[in-house]
Amino acid sequence: MGENNTILNIKNLSKHFGALKAVDKVSFKVKKGEIVGLIGPNGAGKTTLTNLVNGTYSKTGGKVVFKDLDISNLKPYQIARMGLARTYQIVKPLIGMTVEGNVLVGSLYGREKRNNDMKNAYKRAREIIVLFGLESKKDSSVNDITLPDLKKMELARVLAMEPEVVFLDEVMAGLNPKEVEEASILVKKVRQEKDLTIVYIEHIMKAVMGISDRIVVLHHGKKIVEGTPQEVVNNPAVIEAYLGKRYAKGVSNER
């Protein structure tokens, strides 16, 4: 699979909206099995970059290589079926359906070249529901469950597609500290059990620092730093652009 087990290679990716350079020549690689944190202030270009990678937005420049294949000009559904999936900042359940029904849709749609008949789709959906601890909610309408369970359900639906790489776009937004901790444990668990590679977009710094192998920092559409969590948190450019001196001091004292 390419140099150094690289599964995703983002090369000079750009998106301009008129004079606004929302993403400006961003490059980084993701190795198979990694959790790469993608951080930056509001407006840094994190979600725009995700939309470029998964084909929602057309690119102004650059390209995306997934498993040694250039996917830059493919449609979102084609990219998803190849094994690159994503969640959304705002949960998008299939309203009026049950939790199990939502997860089943992901299982039926999923990655190509696998057995997608109803029997196998149900089997995959039920396994994912158990993994996420949603058994007691499986027959509940998505209209009637809590935000933490909705977020679990959305991630379960994505993982039922059996992706190899998944972009998690602020899956912990709106959760309290205990729920954030539980969600962090779950993300690490599914990475291990499903052999996933994860690009993890998050504003909750304790969460992203705690589970990421590497971190990429965006600011005004540009990549300003890439490194380990410790390297990033101590980098003067990151402190100035995003974290603040008090945060950096606190993390250094914790470690």
Overview of the structural elements:
The structure is a single chain. With 255 residues, this protein is an alpha/beta fold. The protein has two domains: 3-83 and 163-254, P-loop containing nucleotide triphosphate hydrolases (Rossmann fold, 3-Layer(aba) Sandwich); 95-162, no CATH class. Helices cover 39% and strands 24% of the residues. The chain has helices at residues 46-53, 76-82, 99-109, 118-131, 147-159, 177-193, 205-211, 229-233, 236-243, 245-254, and strands at 6-17, 20-31, 35-39, 61-66, 69-70, 84-86, 165-169, 197-201, 214-219, 222-227. The strands form two sheets. A six-stranded mixed sheet has the order 6-7-8-3-9-10, with helices on both faces. Strand 4 and strand 5 (69-70) form a beta hairpin. The longest helix is centred in the C-terminal third of the chain and has 17 residues, at 177-193. The two termini are 35 Å apart. The model has no long low-confidence stretch (mean pLDDT 89).
Question: Which range best describes the helical content: under 10%, 10-25%, 25-40%, 40-55%, 55-70% or over 70%?
Answer: 25-40%
Would you count the extended β strands for me? 10
Mean pLDDT: 89
How many distinct domains?
Answer: 2
Please tell me what the overall shape is.
globular
CATH top level of the largest domain? Answer: Alpha Beta
Sheet with the most strands: spatial strand order? 6-7-8-3-9-10
Which percent range describes the beta-strand content? 15-25%
Major sheet, described briefly?
6 strands, mixed
CATH homology-level superfamily of the largest domain: P-loop containing nucleotide triphosphate hydrolases
Structural class comes to alpha/beta
How many separate helices?
10
Gap from first CA to last CA: 35 Å
